[in-house]
Amino acid sequence: MIGMESIYFKSIVSIRDKNDNSNVPLTSCKIQKILSTYSNTKIPIYKLIVDNKSISRNNSYLVLYTCQTCNIQNEITLNLFMRKVNKETKCCESCKNSQEIKCKNQSQFMKDNIHKIRSGEYINEVVKVKSNSLEEHLKKSKEDWDLEDENFKEQYFLHHLTDEDYTRVSCKIISISNDKITKLNDWNYFPTYRIYNQSRFTPMLVHKTENRTEKPNYIKFKCDICECEYVHRDLEIVKNHLKLLCQQCSLVNKKFHLRKKTLNDGTSILWQSVPERRFIEWCQEKQIKIKNGPVLPYSFKETMHKYRVDFELPDKKVLVEIKDNHCWHREEQKTGKFRAKELSATEWCKNHEYTYHVIFPRTMQKFKDSMISL
Questions:
Q1: Do residues 217 and 208 touch, judged by C-beta distance below 8 A?
Q2: What value does the mean pLDDT take over residues 21-45?
Q3: Could you give all domains of the chain from N- to C-terminal order, each with its CATH number?
Q4: What is the pLDDT of residues 51-64, one digit of tens each?
Q5: Number of DSSP helices (H) and strands (E) in the chain, helices first
């Protein structure tokens, strides 16, 4: 260690665990700057490292250290000691209270009020803190933001959404705060709302006419592909997403590139292979109504999964699965996974008086002919 952290580490006499009074060997410890995975500021802070592991705030350690100012030994919690390190505080409580200016102020206070204190007439006046209006706080937020350095601003917007980012995703937002906010047009996005903790700023939704603010959490989105509704805990997760996808579509889209096609009646349908696209176009040409098939639950190796059937022809009461001789399909047949899917689809068809067809390129024409004659 070099620099300031070395000075503070050398002041430590011992570190003990208050639960069992055992001492932590100082040879296994060091103070080091760490960037927390869940930090909002993305700024590293000093933490105690024991056996190459960072000690969290939830700990039972007490630190006995020698004050750099008065040389008096004090024992405080590890959290308080690390706060001193990060704030570069050199005085302990003892020498801080013995500072000359503080003693003079206290002495003068006692001279001015001793008679009232003895007679019981002294009243401790509570200083009232002015509460700013929302408009004043927004103005203060802008002023404080302008004072921040460019590096902080750049790091902040690497994580949080800018006004442009929010405008891009807002059209896909259905509600915020577990359906508490549904009329987004009544709210303005304020990306740099001033708060008074380590983060310093946070995005906030502002309703100026009602003088209210709301933290944008638990946002319900509409999926760009299947158009279902799904929830994210916060806005930041969609910061760099060009497409907003639900969990199911996101998982599928990583393995297969799903695409969306608009049909003649204005509805949309998903496809992922050329044979599927050509089948959709054929149905449109023959004026056969087509839509994506149902999502069916099925069990495989004692675990529940979901099977998204390719297409449904509702007027023909038919479910269609289009396959090619791909390696992953052969693997599903080998393991029995596709058989489990077939059983689920067959059961659904039985309950709805449908028929289920698995179509390959070599059997496609025969199936088309059967649909025309059906």
A1: no
A2: 83
A3: 4-91 (no CATH), 134-248 (no CATH), 256-373 (3.40.960)
A4: 999 998 889 999 99
A5: 12, 21
